[in-house]
Amino acid sequence: MDFIFVFEQVLNGLGYGLMLFLIAAGLTLVFGIMDTMNLAHGSLYMAGAYIAARVHESSGSFAGAVLLAVLLTVVVAVVLEALIIRHLYRRDHLVQVLATFGIILIADDAVKAIWGVAPLLASTPAALAGPIEVFPGLPYPAYRLLLIAAGLLVALGLYALVHGTRIGMLVRAGASNRQMAEFMGVRVGAVFAFVFALGAALAALAGAMMAPISAVQIGMGEAILIPALVVIVIGGIGSIRGAFVAALLVGLVDTAGRAFLPPALRAVLPPALAAELGPALAGIAMYVLMAAVLALKPAGLFPARA
Amino acid sequence: MTPSFVSRPSFAARHAGVLRRLPWLVLAVLALFPLLAPLFGVEYYVGFMRRVMIVAIAAASLNFILGYGGMAALGHAGFIGVGAYTVVALVEAGVASAWLAWGCALVGGGVFAALIGAVSLRTRGVYFIMITLAFAQMLYYLAVSLRTYGGDDGYGLYTPLTLGAGFDTAHPQLFYWVVLALAALVFAVFSRVAHARYGHALRGIRDNETRMVALGYPVYRLKLAGFVAAGAVAGLAGGLLASHNAFVSPGLMHWTQSALLLVMVMLGGAGRRWGAALGVALWLTLEEALKMYTDYWHWPLGLLLLLIVFHAQQGLAGLFGSRAQADVGGQGADVAGEVDGAAQERAGSAEA
């Protein structure tokens, strides 16, 4: 286990964590401001991935594909918000689970009807297909570097938006105390519609960026949703900063678990047992992290509500 | 036309006699079904009904903690998986008795529920939903990595388990009747307990936990007891499901299975005596029927959920039963109905 390998895994974890952050950011704001549990957030991620993969394939332009994926998904999200999500704000969490689970079922069938059952193979843009030598002895896929750069850029932009602009202030006010914000004259409904669309855009961006390095298939939204939920619970529901820190933490823990746990176990345990335990512990790592954080800080690392 | 100031008696009040006898009628029909099915050439549906009843057992256990206890657990499929893998482990170890295997599945589900509940029940609201989900995910990944029991590919149970007296679970009618008897027993016991002192305490906790603490009830222990009972029954359902499918895979524990179970309970009506059974029967029947006609059978079910959310907030059972009849069994109809109705608004609410 040399330094190069460790560094490579850290980069992998960083990339995964940043993509998780893009998904979790929208989820945590929707959750934090309107107290609405949206299981269908993963479906928006799936929509972004499918649209980007198909448009990239037919047009050849990756940037255009990502842009179109984000735009179309936002349109879908705006309609979804107006028709359904808006009417769920004041209902209890279980009803929200019921309704948004219904949306997942409909979205999966819609994707199946439009693009078929077979997983899509999304290709990386040709210009970024090769590796780049980060430093001598460490070639790293250029596309994954783009992923990290894009993730960091969006995170910075989001931070500036939430902490440096008027609309961001309204969003934060809504997250920390919705009733008080409403009382002070903030039209929380409009803020929420904006936040929902923003969250959808980020999820679609993550989907479009992840498409070339993951399987584009039905069910991908449900698979990514759970780590995203873990992130927002660890970070503290409603907190962008919390989501950022937690996403990187989860990304690194998950990647490190998969890369380092099996060999480490092989060193101390009999091989047969290590072969069974290694993957199990690696898969479980992020949930253990969440349970530990909740045991120490029941409201997450950075609680948004005072 | 003269305006009437007298409210029309509810559906349940008008048909009280029929409704009281209905469960016995349903039980009789279900018991005779395996004998009648061959006459109509619908033997296939004997297996289907068996699955409906097994899932209904699991749903009933979730309904008990969700509807009466207000504990919105999104990891109930984890206990089903524990039960199923207990059976797998025992079969792998050479056990042939179905009763022993299912008994151990029950105990296994209970033990895991005790461990998970002890930690989870310290949290509230959304955090409870999330932490139960997290534990179920841990069990899922554990099962995926257990290569001895097939890992991701699952494990086939090729030899039927013995039921005693020379019979085994391959006997189509007998296994069906065993499941029916267990389902009836589970529903009877949960219904009985829900109306005993313990059940009232549990509902009290659902409606106002702080007050119950102030009254001196050991709230945490009462909730944990309910959680363990529900986990044990879900484990039993998992053991039965393993025998029914003759196959066990980690897919049993996927989080969408937990969500489905919640959905079915809410669909039928959380906190209603027959809510779980109604929800499971409707959901699985629709699924089966839609699959016959189209590959796109998910979206009508999704649409149904949205309709329920916006138009039938009490679930299916709420469409038929009056408030009083539904949950409190008619005692002090007015007051009880009022309390129950108010509670229903929050039934299973994460904040309850």
Automatic annotation (TrEMBL), chain A:
Membrane-spanning ranges = 13-32, 62-85, 97-122, 142-162, 183-209, 215-237, 244-265, 277-296
Which CDD domains does the annotation name? Answer: TM_PBP1_LivH_like
Gene Ontology process terms (BP): amino acid transport
Q: How does it sit in the membrane?
A: Multi-pass membrane protein
Q: Which GO terms describe its molecular function?
A: transmembrane transporter activity
Where in or outside the cell it occurs: the entry states: Cell membrane
User: Keywords of this protein's UniProt record, alphabetized?
Assistant: Amino-acid transport, Cell membrane, Membrane, Transmembrane, Transmembrane helix, Transport
Q: Short name of one Pfam family for this protein?
A: BPD_transp_2
GO CC, sorted alphabetically, is: plasma membrane
Family named by the database record: Belongs to the binding-protein-dependent transport system permease family. LivHM subfamily.
Q: What is this protein called?
A: ABC transporter permease
Organism for this UniProt entry: Thauera terpenica 58Eu
TrEMBL record, chain B:
One GO term describing the cellular component: plasma membrane
Which domain of life does this protein belong to?
Bacteria
Query: Topology relative to the membrane, per the entry?
Result: Multi-pass membrane protein
Looking up CDD domains in the UniProt record yields: TM_PBP1_LivM_like
Q: Where are the transmembrane segments?
A: 21-42, 73-93, 99-119, 126-143, 174-194, 224-247, 259-284, 296-313
Q: Where in the cell is it found?
A: Cell membrane
Please give the Gene Ontology molecular function terms for this protein: branched-chain amino acid transmembrane transporter activity
Output the Pfam families linked to this UniProt entry.
Answer: BPD_transp_2
Q: Does the keyword Transmembrane helix apply?
A: yes
Q: Which InterPro entries match?
A: ABC_transp_permease, LivM-like
Write out the entry's keywords from A to Z.
Answer: Cell membrane, Membrane, Transmembrane, Transmembrane helix
Q: Which PANTHER family match?
A: ABC TRANSPORTER ATP-BINDING PROTEIN (PTHR30482:SF17), HIGH-AFFINITY BRANCHED-CHAIN AMINO ACID TRANSPORT SYSTEM PERMEASE (PTHR30482)
What is this protein's record name?
A: Branched-chain amino acid ABC transporter permease
Query: What is the protein's species of origin?
Result: Thauera terpenica 58Eu
